[in-house]
């Protein structure tokens, strides 16, 4: 039997299966943060669960900067939050 990889949500600290979490990645080259739909993009990653509370906590830029070791702008994190919300809506519709 194969082990299922577990990851921890950076906001609520719950451990869940990797594929049930949302991955946010810091691009090493140009120091940007983006939502990784595939879960396989290169760069340092952090995971959040899909709850509204955890998604809204992404507005806390200081937390993201510490975890991903980057200086991201609040506007950029708002774009990431919107991308995640769109993705979750698409998943519900399909």
TrEMBL record:
Signal peptide: none annotated. Residues 7-81 form the YlxR domain. InterPro entries: YlxR, YlxR-like_sf, YlxR_dom. It comes from the Bacteria. It holds the Pfam family YlxR. SUPFAM superfamilies: YlxR-like. PANTHER family: BLL0784 PROTEIN, YLXR DOMAIN-CONTAINING PROTEIN. This is YlxR domain-containing protein. It comes from Anaerofustis stercorihominis DSM 17244.
